Amino acid sequence: MANLDNKKALVLVADGSEEMETVITIDVLRRAQIDVTVAGIALQNENYAKCSRGVMIVPDQSFSNISKEVLSKKCIYDIIIIPGGLTGAQTISSNSEIQELLASEHRDGKFIAAICAGTIAIKSANINKGGKITSHPVVKADLENEYNYQEERVVVDNKVISSRGPGTAFLFALTIVEQLLGKEKRDEISSPMILASTL
Amino acid sequence: MANLDNKKALVLVADGSEEMETVITIDVLRRAQIDVTVAGIALQNENYAKCSRGVMIVPDQSFSNISKEVLSKKCIYDIIIIPGGLTGAQTISSNSEIQELLASEHRDGKFIAAICAGTIAIKSANINKGGKITSHPVVKADLENEYNYQEERVVVDNKVISSRGPGTAFLFALTIVEQLLGKEKRDEISSPMILASTL
Ligand SMILES: [Cu+]
Asked: Is Cytoplasm one of the keywords (chains A, B) (predicted)?
């Protein structure tokens, strides 16, 4: 049986991150009792991330405050998650500290998950090149030469979880729950959310 | 053809509101160029609503700042929207200023929309009694004696739009878009979100 204790997730959020993808992921993981930390990256107003459609989300931490702890393995996450939203994804994928973090975490056997345009951070961190990936169609051209590009709604390959857009965010989040905690936990939290019969 | 200009929506948010239902609705409406104002109700920390799974959302306005303008019709919304999350829904549905606002707006032919536990605010405002409604199953017992309770994923009846939970929030938001702006607008914004084939 999967160990239900102490699973920890780090969700990165920047100005321009897609708020639905961000919030669906955080909420669904917390419904599964995963300990989620929302870290703000290079926010113009340090108090909140101004997301792609203007929703303002207060992060739990500033990434600059926790990056040293994370990189030095004092603070250990089971998964790092990157939402979409083109502007936010560009900020996240071009940050060298994050590139280093994603690469080292993946080398250590941790999961890396990205949805929509957030998937470009997987490429910029040089993770799982040649492996299977999906993304929002708008960034397909950035990925298909260096990955085995898939049109599936969610793809899991070598501890890299990728997905396509706001409409696949529930499936993305539930797949993360299943990978970390098993199918039973996924099923347990699905029912009260009144999901569609196919995601 | 529907008039695409100047549609205005007011989304009410309190501590304990369901963050997925709140954010999916705001985001999808803004994708349809609806002018959305997020108003915070009785927030413990006036800077943000602490939602049901800990996501902190900064409102655009405090409801107490705009309630006079809204009640005196200086500020006119085409729709008022109440998310779920039991604690948030209780705060919103027990607020007498909001009850007055919802009732007077509905009398004036405006839409009232609620999802999940947010639907109890429709009852507390005495709106469309005997009409068709749906909700999250947890509040079905509060509604079924005074409404024609439905198990549909979204219900539109006499300018009251109701829905069931986080998993029906995309359908809820798209139904609002269709009611305000027509099916063409709904279809236009649906495609980039990569929604499931049935919602
Ligand atoms: Cu709810």
From this structure: yes
- What is the SS3 string spanning chain A? CCCCCCCEEEEEEECCCCHHHHHHHHHHHHHCCCEEEEEEECCCECCEEECCCCCEEECCEEHHHHHHHHHCCCCCCCEEEECCCHHHHHHHHCCHHHHHHHHHHHHCCCEEEEEHHHHHHHHHCCCCCCCEECCCHHHHHHHCCCCEECCCCEEEECCEEEECCHHHHHHHHHHHHHHHHCHHHHHHHHHHHCCCCCC
Q: Quick one: residue B16, left, alpha or beta (phi over 0 = left, psi -120 to 50 = alpha)?
A: left
Residues 58-117 in A contacting B (C-alpha not used; CB under 8 Å): 58
Query: Nearest CB to B55: which of A57, A137, A192?
Result: A57
The whole-number pLDDT of residue A1 equals 45
Phi-psi bin for A33: left (phi > 0), alpha (psi -120 to 50), beta? left
CA of B89 to the centre of ligand 1 (A): 9
Q: Using an 8 Å Cβ cutoff, are B9 and B81 in contact?
A: yes
A123-159 pLDDT, tens digit each: 999 999 999 999 999 999 999 999 999 999 999 999 9
Query: Who's near B57: CB < 8 A, 6+ residues apart?
Result: A55, A56, A57, A58, B13, B19, B22, B23, B38, B48, B49, B51
What does the block give as tokens for B30? 């803004």
B20–A23 CB contact, under 8 Å: yes
- Asked whether the predicted pLDDT for residue B18 surpasses 60, the reply is yes
Mean pLDDT of A183-197: 97
Q: Which of B44, B108, B49, B39 is nearest to B73 (CA)?
A: B108
For B23, nearest residue in chain A (alpha carbons): A20
Give yes or no: B116 in active site. yes
A24 shares contact with chain B (CB less than 8 Å): yes
Output the CA angle B192-A96-A157, nearest 5 degrees.
55
The pLDDT assigned to A73 comes to: 73
Ligand 1 centroid, distance to B165 Cα (angstroms): 6
pLDDT reading at A26 higher than 60: yes
pTM for the full predicted model: 0.97
**Which of B31, B48, B197 is the closest to A198 by Cβ?**
B197
